[in-house]
Write a structure and sequence with these properties.
GO terms for molecular function: antioxidant activity; oxidoreductase activity. The protein is α+β, with helices and mostly antiparallel strands. Helix content is 27%, strand content 21%. The radius of gyration is 15 Å and the shape is globular.
């Protein structure tokens, strides 16, 4: 498992569109997931210890961001042939058991991850109401273990600022996680 960190935020970059199947049995697009004040696109998976360490916090933050008018969506782009735990049935089970307050989508051909430039799980892309990138940073100080309960909520605070002002913070700390498991060419 290779540890990878995200690049610096490319402020203003537009959110690529997508049309992917969700664990809820419906198809979802960028526009169906966005809220009136923004969109948070999260690349996650089922097996990654970095995601497992913060999944409760992701669920909490997504639910709170919804009250601020920020829509959230999680996308799984790993090759399940390499990591069976990331397969469809496990995605459905985890989304149901954990009661995800956001759609959990399968990017089977990995085209959406490539369009966004996702590099790791978790990888967060925070957009304003105009779908311009404003945040590409970490959730909080967690790594393979959750940070203390009183850790600063970097992602939540940044997206709250985006929802209120349309602009993300100038200073952002990269997210770190397991590399995306790309299909062999």
């Amino acid at each position: 498992m290779a540890s990878t960190s995200t690049p610096i935020c490319a402020f203003g970059e537009p959110a690529p569109d997508f049309d992917l199947p969700g664990t809820d049995g419906r198809r979802h697009s960028r526009d169906s997931c966005r809220g009136p004040n923004g969109l948070l696109v999260m690349f996650i998976c089922n097996h990654c210890p970095y995601v497992k360490a913060v999944l409760d916090r992701i669920i909490r933050d997504a639910a709170e961001l919804a009250t601020l008018g920020v829509g959230c969506v999680a996308i799984m782009s790993n090759d399940p042939a390499l990591y069976p735990e990331d397969g469809w049935d496990e995605m459905v089970r985890i989304a149901r058991d954990r009661q995800f307050p956001f759609p959990y989508l399968l990017d089977a051909d990995q085209s959406v991850a490539r369009a966004y430039g996702a590099v790791c799980t978790p990888d967060f892309f925070g957009y304003n109401a105009a779908l311009e990138l404003q945040y590409r940073g970490r959730l909080d100080a967690s790594r393979k273990d959750a940070a203390p309960d009183d850790a600063r909520r970097d992602l939540f605070e940044a997206m709250k600022q985006v929802a209120q002002s349309g602009r993300g913070p100038a200073e952002q700390i990269p997210s770190i996680g397991c590399s995306i498991k790309w299909r062999e060419a």
